[in-house]
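BUG: 3D viewer hangs when loading the predicted structure for this chain

Environment: internal workstation, default settings.
Expected: structure renders.
Actual: progress bar stalls at 90%.

Input used:
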Amino acid sequence: GLDSVSRACQLLGVRTLRVSAPARDIRTDGGGEAEDFIERSLDQASKQGAKKRDLTPGEVLTTKREALSLYRAVWRASFMFVWKNERGVEWKEVIRESARKEFEAARHERDPEMVARLLLTGRDYLDQAVQKFLDKRQKIIDEEESKDAGGPPRGVPSAS
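Structure tokens produced before the viewer hung:
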């Protein structure tokens, strides 16, 4: 997966590749187009069996579009990570730099199945990191509201 996104996931405690149902509501891919492309690519790759083939020019354009979409989504999501790491560098900068390196390393990948896997894994990691961030943020908001109101956080039953 994307090293930067996996670092963010590790920081937030995300350990699985499964995207929860609430995460689908905030998908960063603009409505599932990436999933459709990846499914088509995986189906084509599995139909071809062990025979490897290069991408056609049309598939390259679509793949580039999907990769660019994922890169932009990582860039947008990085704005949420404003705190600094142990070296004093903002996490958003660490995420951006790492994402750039990961995308550059995979730039010349021609195997359609590998490209599809990279895109899918990167999207899943990103969605999980964003969902975990939003969940944590909501928990903090709920705790602050309960302190202000003097009661337990929303969704937590009182002791009475």
